[in-house]
Amino acid sequence: LGKKVLIVYAHQEPRSFNGCLKKVAVETLSKQGCTVTVSDLYAMDFEPRATRNDITGALSNPEVFSYGVEAYEACKKRCLTSDIVDEQKKVQEADLVIFQFPLYWFSVPAILKGWMDRVLCQGFAFDLPGFYDSGFLKGKLALLSITTGGTAEMYTKTGVSGDFKYFLWPLQHGTLHFCGFKVLAPQISFAPETASEEERKQMMASWAQRLETIWKEVPIPCTPPWYFGQ
């Protein structure tokens, strides 16, 4: 196929279930002839904080620091720090970006949130106007592969945590779709820690199987009703 995939991976332990899911994705996609790049955020010691260190040139307003404004200006002038630029290049080249992470507080781990804060800046991922369907990353696919602590029953409309689609809204809609990505259905591996060895093998197998035909998938509808019902 010659497709390019970026896996943004946020887990501290290579032998973890997240690590295994990442490995499965690399192997399955590589076998198809895809070029797979992995950004292993913890191994890279990726800086999650959005600070003035992200701008290598002079600030446009040194008096009062506004990160959004300065990152936008620096993006236009090519004065963003190299770790951001490196990640932007990987995103730019990718046909599909897979985010592999454990759910922390209904969201992403801090290191991955920092990747989103710093890498998806105005001027690179979107502009105003130039967001949602006209976001700059349109034409690319994105997919969240998430592991949870809670069981599938907990993440239902009647469950104690509510429908899992609720926590997908800020990530899939407010972040990925905002930047123009077409979002594929999430891969959620519920409660691998409490699952049996057999169940964990099944989760890995279903991920591998899904990736076999991933390029044929239709993105989910980018509308509030998909998340919150009619």
Automatic annotation (TrEMBL):
SUPFAM superfamilies with a match to the protein in the record: Flavoproteins
Gene Ontology MF terms: chloride ion binding; dihydronicotinamide riboside quinone reductase activity; electron transfer activity; FAD binding; melatonin binding; NAD(P)H dehydrogenase (quinone) activity; oxidoreductase activity, acting on other nitrogenous compounds as donors; protein homodimerization activity
GO biological process: quinone catabolic process
Domain Flavodoxin-like fold: start-end pairs: 3-211
Cofactor(s) the protein requires to work: Zn(2+); FAD
Alphabetized UniProt keyword annotations: Cytoplasm, FAD, Flavoprotein, Metal-binding, Oxidoreductase, Phosphoprotein, Zinc
Keyword Metal-binding: yes
Signal in keyword set: no
CC terms in the record's Gene Ontology section: cytosol; nucleoplasm
Domain of life where this protein originates: Eukaryota
Quaternary organization: Homodimer.
Entry's family note: Belongs to the NAD(P)H dehydrogenase (quinone) family.
Role summary: The enzyme apparently serves as a quinone reductase in connection with conjugation reactions of hydroquinones involved in detoxification pathways as well as in biosynthetic processes such as the vitamin K-dependent gamma-carboxylation of glutamate residues in prothrombin synthesis.
PANTHER family (alphabetical): NAD P H OXIDOREDUCTASE-RELATED, RIBOSYLDIHYDRONICOTINAMIDE DEHYDROGENASE [QUINONE]
Protein name: Ribosyldihydronicotinamide dehydrogenase [quinone]
Originating organism: Myotis lucifugus (Little brown bat)
Gene: NQO2
